[in-house]
UniProtKB/TrEMBL annotation:
Record-stated family: Belongs to the class-V pyridoxal-phosphate-dependent aminotransferase family. NifS/IscS subfamily.
Superkingdom field: Bacteria
One Pfam family named in its UniProt record: Aminotran_5
Alphabetical keyword list: Coiled coil, Iron, Iron-sulfur, Metal-binding, Pyridoxal phosphate
Matching PANTHER family: CYSTEINE DESULFURASE ISCS 2-RELATED (PTHR11601:SF50), CYSTEINE DESULFURYLASE FAMILY MEMBER (PTHR11601)
Coiled-coil ranges from the UniProt annotation: 246-273
Name of the protein in question: Cysteine desulfurase
Domain annotation Aminotransferase class V: ranges: 2-364
GO molecular function annotations of the record: cysteine desulfurase activity; iron-sulfur cluster binding; metal ion binding
Cofactor or coenzyme needed: pyridoxal 5'-phosphate
Amino acid sequence: MIYLDNSATSLPYDEVLDTYQKTAIRHFGNPSSLHDYGSVAEQLLRKARQSIANILDINTGELTFTSGGTEGNNLAIKGAAYARRGRGNHIITSAVEHPSVLETCRYLETHGFEVTYLPVDREGRVSLENVKEAIRESTILVSIMHVNHETGAIQPVEKIGEWLKSQEKIRFHVDHVQGATKVPLELKNSGIDLCTFSAHKIHGLKGTGLVYIRNGVRVEPLFHGGGQEQNVRSGTENLPGIVAFAKALRLSFERYQDAKDSLEKNKELLIQACRDREGMVVNTPDEISAPHIVNVSVLGARPEIVIQALTKKNIHVSSKSACASRLQTASEVLAAQFGHEERAETGLRFSFSHETKEADIRQLLSALDEIVPEIRRVNEVNV
């Protein structure tokens, strides 16, 4: 089996599954309970929080655990927008964000907020100048992802964060779900006020994530109840998932650092090979892009057909974000990058893990060489 859909979800590490199971069985107490089982659970929660804070070089009080990236992005964006509504109602984001950001912003537009969707260049990136030009007196929030979930393009969030330090009224949110452990991002003193992570993208378990909320930044909670997570996210903490998240984060930082060269080589191999093939167009930027994502448009072949043909050969890839992949429409990301042309409708995403081998890439290419011409021939007959 060749799995090249790690941007949708990743295989949990054996050590992570073992940690989850042991915690769920041995330490099932509610961290809020006063008895011994609750106390032990609370201690484990504190240790996991400290471990993650140490890895990310932030304070423990700046971590809020969530159920994953979608909740995290909703909490950061809605929470910051509603908390600062008395100061303005204008939000800036980009046209190539994850659906959990775009749909959140569209929702806020129906509740009195105004949103500017910044364009991107042919490399899929926003510019600091465009951010500056979009700022208004009423601007209260900027939300720009770090690594694009479809193309791997890296946004200049460090430059944006540095400039926004001078804009005291404006909060800056970064969706770091795709970049975590693969593309470095410093949070401390970065100008980033809110940052989203998800465990299952880094070989942790689904249903666990976190939002970094810089000290002094206030967000309105989405959930109300017992006041867990410093009154930001009520609900009993997913202790096994959080403890497993801490382990996944540590192991992924180690393993992806060790595999950095092989990831880059596999990426270069796939990009060059696709460029050498007729009717294939590479959408991932040559430079300033993540080492684990390659996006290619296979002209004349619907992506869902290619995906199904590949999966019959036990090779598993995707097209758009998993949250939007069942919608048979052009990629919003590629449409924003290249316009509504054929390449926006035929994009495929190949996303690696640290375990992806050169032989996997070569087997993928061989399968594409067999599959794509046949799909194109059928399309020509049916036209």
